Amino acid sequence: MKTLTITEGRGRLGYWLKKATQGDDIGFVFEGKIVALRPVEVYSSDYALQEYGLSQSDMMVVEKKIGAILEKARSRGEITKFTGGKNDFC
User: Fold this and answer.
1) Model pTM?
2) Fewer CB within 10 Å, N- or C-terminus of the chain?
């Protein structure tokens, strides 16, 4: 494992992140411990749980509420649906 101080890694952080995504073991020494850089997979199903502490049933309730808010805003003409076309930005 390549270990770096924060000062050593800061100037070339992009380089070290790239090395980590390529499978190299990279670690930063922080307060006497080594913190490893590792790529992780983020799944939308666990993002709400990890980021906001929502359960699956909580997320379903939030999803319905957000959907209702968006539908009302669309019906009032406040927002339009994004289609991916260049005219969506005008």
Assistant:
1) 0.47
2) C
